[in-house]
Amino acid sequence: MFNPNEHMRQIKSRDGSAQDYLDVKWRLVWFREKFPNGTIETQEIVVDLDREMTVEAYVWNTEKRRSEKVQKTAKGYARFRAIVTTGEGGSATATGSECAADFGDYIEKAETKAIGRSLALLGFGTQFAPELNEDHRIVDSPVK
Fold first, then answer.
1. Four-residue CA torsion sign, 54, 58, 61, 62
2. Cβ neighbours around 114 below 10 Å, total
């Protein structure tokens, strides 16, 4: 039986704190064990090799012996949709996007992100998915 705790790793969040994370590859193993007849379908929404994107990133400064925030710019953007079905009536759809300024293999990363989000929506790694943490960007409408 799959135990996600055996495959956890620590990643740094945007605020620098460490948090548990379950890689998408392990979410897939967990999903396939539980739903061997499940399906995963991905669709390319956008791949724009010429779109220039700028992101903030941390780069190690060897002189100062610390990470420093820098602006990175590169051409390339991709967005994918993933539809995951359990084969037993459950399904989830999510999108993921990435850019070349963040990852050299941004097209594959966008597809993997979409799959990971769909799996998280089905409960596979939700508690370990920082992309579902709203922090200060609450998406729900207030209820009185």
1. negative
2. 28
For 21, phi then psi, to 5°, come to -145, 135
Q: For residue 102, give the nearest of 60, 68, 72, 61 by alpha carbon.
A: 72
Report whether 4 contacts 128 (CB < 8 A). yes
Minimal CA–CA distance to 92: which of 105, 102, 77, 82?
Answer: 82
The predicted-structure confidence for 99-123, as pLDDT tens digits, reads as follows: 999 999 999 999 999 999 999 999 8
User: Are 106 and 71 contacting, i.e. CB atoms less than 8 angstroms apart?
Assistant: no
Predicted model pTM: 0.81
| Mean pLDDT estimate for the chain | 87
